[in-house]
Fold:
Amino acid sequence: MQLLFSMSIRTKISDSYKRIGLLFILFIFLSYHGYAQSGSCSTPIVIDLSGSSDTTATASGSRNGVCCSGSNCISFTILVNPNTDLINFTTDQITGASFYSINCGPLIPNGTPACITGQSTINITFCKPGNNIVTAIVTASRAVQASGDLSLRQGCTGTMSVTGLQASSVTWTSIYPGATGTYNSYLSQTSGSSTVTVTPQAGSPAYIDYKVSGNENTACSSAKSDTVRVYTYPPLTVALASSAPVICSGSTVVLTATASGGDPAYTYLWSTGATTPSISVTTGGTYTVAVNDQSTSCGPVTQQVTMSAYTVVAPTAPPVAVCYGNTAILTATAPGGPYQWYDSSGNSLCTCTSSTVTTPVLTSSTTYYVSTSYNGCPSTKTAIPVTVNPLPSKPSIAP
Structure:
């Protein structure tokens, strides 16, 4: 009995040790897991922003570390692009006053950019009571940013601007090609403004680099500069041609726009809504085409043409009867002229343009045709039947 009791006690003690061992292992696992994800000072969460000077990244973790003499903290190691000047830190759960610090430095209000010019790696610490999971948003940017590169046709005006500089300290100058300032005459002004216009002139080089410099108005206080490249192209010209000077009734005229200069390829937009270089028209009116190139910001060049349309009334002409071996006089009447005459085979009867014409000697009935024209538009042909009557036979004389 005593033996059984002793064995039972040892079994319970053994089970207890096993449970304690399992709990200890679980505690170690959970502690390690939470430690790795918490972003504590010894194992911060790494955020790589080195690929771009202007970018944003997010990362999540719980505030359960002790960092920079603070508790309930989360820590981030930020890899920084060489051209980045400013870093901004905020979270998705900020309530009340919240701060972050860089490299255990002074507290910075969340959402306020800090200057990190020249640093390749920094450490950000965020501390606040509680250890709930938070998502941090870290934004890297340049302190000074000029507007993007421009593509302009010669004689066309574009705008360049810069942010992050004190306007009164801003200077603009060309730095390539040629000596500094060679193409400053293309600028509306060279100092004292964050925004200037540039107008490349005829014969401009393929591109011009303009440098903008000044004193920062951000958390950084050093002198800074940036560059804008202006690509230049010859002026865009558009020629508009028609396949005929006027639109005749029932006919089609093709209008064709031909572009040159600028930066091909070209886009087309006609007042009819068509987007092809050529259109076919059948009615009179004014037709406009707007042509643009593919990259310049100068806008389209327009051309227009006014087409007149004419419907010409066909002439009237009476039928004619003649005797065998005679000629016939054909007469036509129309509101205009001149007249064109044709034989039954469609060949021109004569080079005359009058309202009357004399046929050759006729020996059989036939049909002639006549038409008229106005401003180069012909009418339909009018048929003129010509009947050739046989000569009467001579009466017989009795012997």
